[in-house]
Amino acid sequence: MITFKSVSKVYPGNITALNAVNFHIEAGEFVSIVGQSGSGKTTVIRLLIAEENPTHGQIIIGDWDITNIGRNEVPLLRRQIGVIFQDFKLLPKKTAYENAAFALEVSGVPTARIKAIVPQVFKIVGLEKKMDRFPQQLSGGEQQRVAIARSLVHRPKILLADEPTGNLDSINGHEIIDLLLKINEFGTTVILVTHNREVVNMMKKRVITLDHGHLVSDQATGKYLL
Amino acid sequence: MTTFLRIIKFALKNFWRNVALSIVTITIIVLVLFSTSFLFLLNILAQTAIGAVESKIDVSVYFTERVSEDKILDAKGAWEANPAVASIDYISKDQALEQFKLKHKDDDAIKALEQVGRNPFGAVLVLKAKSPDQYLALEQLTKDEKYKSVIMDTTFNDNRQDLEKLKVITTNIRRIGIGTSIVFAIIAILVIYSTIKMTIYNQSDEIGIMRLVGASNIFIRGPFIVESILYGLFASLIAMAILFFPLVGLVSPFVSKFFEGYAEDLFRSFVSNIWMVAMLQMVLGILLSIVSSAFAVRKYLKV
């Protein structure tokens, strides 16, 4: 599904974010990428959504070599990968429904289809009764659920979660992780980037550990090592 | 189609979100369109004025009272063959009398005519040259030995100096107009550029999310280009409304009075060119907007 072949990313000023990283993720896996700040976790996400190109190496998603993906192909890639972030990235002047529908609107999906899809994803994230609320009327956990709903509207094969519990208390954090596990059960490959030891140890899923841009550990049912 | 309609919807939203900025931008485009249309109007006016003055350059040949009509028509036929002659109007004795009566119906001259008791006027030929430069050729024609004995008098309306002055004035006004239009156009480009730049900054969160969720490049950039097209479109409509009704409507009667009898009504001639002026304004307004917004989008909106 996802293959990193000796991928390196060097930023201007000779700052190495990733150094010859190799891993392969099968379709339907749930993988946590852990490491301390500056270990290269977020760079992996940025490379996967083609926000950046690798300096060396090759990145393959499915049969698609995205190493040097063309600018016009990037939107197509991003419609197949859902992404959620620590800061939710919701539009404050749009309701929960509108935030999720926005992802479909800007991709040219017909209105009738949007009306069919959006309530379904809100049902999955358990917010079907709060679709008309604005982000500031929702708790942090609920806002992250809206972000997850938005990431699911394209029915992506891969869901990338970059520190999704970083701004949440432990109860809300656990609820979000449970939701990600539920989405994974539906067959979506989930890549969770986190430095939350408790969350990683609780799940008993595959863990890839990065340290200063190097892959130092890849355990099938791992624990937070650092 | 869905994408196209949504791009327009997003553009309209951007337009209303920054309505104050939109108004400023439209105002400055109106100024550009107004100054270029003023140039166009001036051109029509200059052509009207030059035409009017040119039409006043003529030679009137007054024949003696007793000369036969055949002789006069013979002179008319001979002179019409000359390449310098544009037209010759024949005013018969009777027509000359009628014109005199009409002109002096309210004064004492008419009484003097009654005392004479007969038609004292001779026939007149009014010669017009093809161009003001050929005026001297007309003068030469009237000195022909064959007709010298029957010509009582000739009058020359030489307005060539006035014409030259008029041409210099209109050329200068046109130059000032072109200069003003260029200055306004540069200001408009800078204002539209800044407006789109500010809109892009204001929408940075939305643009970031659009990129994240896989919006196509045309969907990200399109609304900003459409927004600028709206500026051009609204500006051209406003400029047309100001130009046609208050301005041309108000100025037209004065201009028409000034050129009375020589030129067609200014308002009518402007209205007959309405589609051309409208197209010119719309194309210019939209072109200015697209070019400047394209620069701003290219520089500040990376996809």
TrEMBL record, chain A:
Alphabetically ordered keywords of this record: ATP-binding, Cell cycle, Cell division, Cell membrane, Membrane, Nucleotide-binding
GO CC terms of this entry: plasma membrane
GO molecular function, one term: ATP binding
Subcellular locations according to the entry: Cell membrane
InterPro entries to which the protein is assigned, alphabetical: AAA+_ATPase, ABC_transporter-like_ATP-bd, ABC_transporter-like_CS, ABC_transpr_LolD-like, Cell_div_FtsE, P-loop_NTPase
Single biological process term from Gene Ontology: cell division
Domain of life: Bacteria
Membrane topology listed for this record: Peripheral membrane protein
Keyword Nucleotide-binding: yes
Residue ranges of every copy of the ABC transporter domain listed in the record: 2-226
NCBIfam families for this protein: FtsE (TIGR02673)
Function: Part of the ABC transporter FtsEX involved in cellular division.
Subunit composition and interactions: Homodimer. Forms a membrane-associated complex with FtsX.
PANTHER family: CELL DIVISION ATP-BINDING PROTEIN FTSE, IMPORT ATP-BINDING PROTEIN
Family, per entry: Belongs to the ABC transporter superfamily.
Protein's name according to its UniProt entry: Cell division ATP-binding protein FtsE
Recorded name of the encoding gene: ftsE
UniProtKB/TrEMBL annotation, chain B:
Domain ABC3 transporter permease C-terminal, residue spans: 181-299
Keywords associated with the record: Cell cycle, Cell division, Cell membrane, Membrane, Transmembrane, Transmembrane helix
Stretches of the chain forming a coiled coil according to its record: none
GO BP terms in the entry: cell division
Domain FtsX extracellular: 58-140
Membrane topology, record value: Multi-pass membrane protein
Compartment(s): Cell membrane
Transmembrane annotation, as ranges: 20-46, 176-196, 208-226, 233-254, 274-297
The protein, known as: Cell division protein FtsX
Organism: Candidatus Kaiserbacteria bacterium RIFCSPHIGHO2_01_FULL_48_10
